[in-house]
Specification:
Mean pLDDT: 91
Helix content: 25-40%
Number of strands: 23
Largest sheet: 7 strands, mixed
Oligomer: single chain
Radius of gyration: 26 Å
Low-confidence stretches: none
Structural class: alpha+beta
Shape: globular
Length: about 525
């Protein structure tokens, strides 16, 4: 990425709108806060990312299968899962700016600023000592770094205790003691902290029982848990095995911002892996490694990922971490990996009165499995891809181009077919080539403007290959194949185009890295 980080997100947002990737939802009515529509190229990229996840998770693992559960679920589901009572965020308002924030995130952002001070100290020392610099030793011995780290540890411990104990007054006290100011106004005039449930409620026309209130699901995982026995029995699955799902979820977020990073309607790609009790932490480590490898295969830069272990564990977990990606606004959660114990299945047993156990023939007994969860935000993955792909280049002739360097297997349009001129039979030949390729790839024919301008347009869309039909094509049935990233061109026979593009655009090139 060749732009300053603070400008990159703005440029990506503008590019998405201009080139048909993401539009503000209901824009003709001035939009709806934190909701977006995926445009003609955005939906293709999104589908390719889903396909990459599904193929790697389901096809490449003989003990993982997929389902597609309904968004609406019986309301007792959410009582059993803890969402009715515990799915809350601590909310705080600034009295002067009238802006609303999550109290815990304000504190975490304050801690991140201290961490940045440590990183700056380390960078300065590394320049001073050169190759002899030992980062680990520096962090363990430098007085200033040790003082910063002590501050971080103290704040994190107090935050953890306040969250675990539901101590809302303690959260406000910590914010005030640290002198945390409103990022917008600089004001420190805060309201009290209060809890805010994130579930959207709606009404169902007819429901057995004394209430017709139901919820839009805040996560896709519960649809997997309530189908545990259905899948296990019909699929004759043996422990360990997993159930995967891609689907929409809905959360009434206090702060929905940063484009598609945090929305109220979003899409998750989740897998729940059922294991024998006592083996869950080994599987937790194994899935951490597998998921990081999956991300790095995308080519977004290994240095842009890191693990972040949770200080404040959810009520259902005995271990949890995030895979964080370096977005323009800093390292943020991209995927969560959790050891959920047997909380969910036991809770659904209790509330439903049905046994949700696995009979292990090897041990001749039944037990409730433990669960390892991997949950990735598809919209966040989409944003990470575009932020990394967006590139501004100055070419040898001094001209500028903007190019989306999306990996060819995931690019929305695989090839643009470009007749050099709009006469001499070239348009008809372009149509013939399009008709040959359309059964294999999403392609475009582009007739309008000079060839250079058409190349730039396709570069901005992220099309990896340009196929130019020229007068030589009419003589020897070859075309010019242009590579988006290198801009190199080669002559390729028309009859070998399908095979050539299939090799360059194959999803297997990503899957084989796993």
């Amino acid at each position: 990425m060749s732009q300053p980080e603070d400008n990159l997100l703005k440029k990506v947002i503008a590019h998405c709108k201009e080139y048909g990737y993401v539009f503000p939802s209901s824009e003709i009515y001035d939009g709806l806060s934190a909701t977006y529509d995926y445009g003609q190229y955005g939906v293709e990229l999104k589908n390719h990312l889903k396909h990459y996840w599904w193929e790697s998770m389901v096809r490449m693992n003989e003990n993982i299968v997929g389902i597609d559960a309904a968004i609406f679920m019986h309301p007792t589901t959410w009582k059993a899962s803890g969402h009715v009572d515990a799915f809350n965020d601590p909310l705080i308002d600034n009295k002067d700016s009238k802006k609303r924030y999550r109290a815990d995130q304000l504190i975490e952002e304050y801690v991140a600023k201290i961490e940045n001070k440590i990183n700056k100290e380390e960078t300065k020392a590394a320049k001073r000592f050169g190759d002899a610099f030992d980062a680990e030793q520096f962090r363990a011995t430098n007085p200033r770094v040790l003082k910063y780290q002590e501050q971080i540890d103290t704040i994190n411990q107090r935050l953890k205790e306040a969250i675990e104990q539901g101590d809302l007054e303690g959260l406000k006290a910590l914010i005030e003691e640290l002198g945390i100011a409103d990022p917008v106004s600089g004001s420190r005039n805060w309201t009290d902290v209060r809890q805010f449930n994130l579930m959207f409620a709606t009404e169902l026309g007819s429901l057995a029982g004394d209430s017709n209130k139901i919820f839009l699901r805040p996560e896709t995982a519960q649809g997997i848990f309530v189908n545990f026995l259905n899948v296990q029995k019909t699929g004759r699955m043996r422990i360990p095995f997993g159930i995967a799902q891609i689907g929409k979820a809905f959360r009434n977020e206090i702060i929905a911002r940063q484009f598609i990073f945090r929305m109220r309607e979003f899409e998750q790609m989740e897998m729940q892996f059922f294991v024998k009790p006592g083996e869950e932490l080994d599987w937790y480590q194994a899935w951490k490694e597998k998921r990081m490898k999956w991300h790095r295969a995308l080519g977004l830069g290994g240095e842009n990922y890191r693990f972040h272990d949770h200080l404040n564990l959810a009520h259902y977990a005995n271990a949890a971490c995030d895979i964080e990606y370096k977005f323009p606004m800093g390292f943020k959660e991209l995927e969560g990996i959790h050891s959920r114990t047997d909380f969910d299945l036991k809770a659904h047993e209790q509330y439903s009165g049905k046994k949700l156990q696995f009979f292990d023939p090897a041990e001749d007994k039944s037990y409730v499995p433990y669960v390892i969860e991997t949950s990735i935000g598809l919209d966040r993955l989409f944003l990470a891809m575009l932020c990394h792909a967006y590139t501004e280049e100055t070419l040898d002739d001094g001209s500028q181009r903007v190019v989306l360097k999306i990996p060819a297997p995931l690019a929305p349009v695989k090839a643009a077919i470009l007749p050099l001129v709009n006469k001499d039979g070239l348009p008809e030949k372009a149509q013939e080539v399009f008709d040959q390729l359309k059964y294999h790839f999403l392609c475009q024919i582009d007739f309008k403007d000079a060839i250079g301008r058409r190349y730039r347009r396709q570069d901005a869309i992220g099309t990896p290959f340009g196929i130019t039909i020229d007068h030589q094509t009419m003589e020897d049935d070859t075309v010019t194949l242009r590579d988006r990233d290198s801009m190199k061109q080669e002559r390729v026979p028309v009859h070998s185009l399908v095979e050539t593009l299939r090799e360059k655009c194959a999803l297997q090139s990503l899957l084989q890295q796993l």
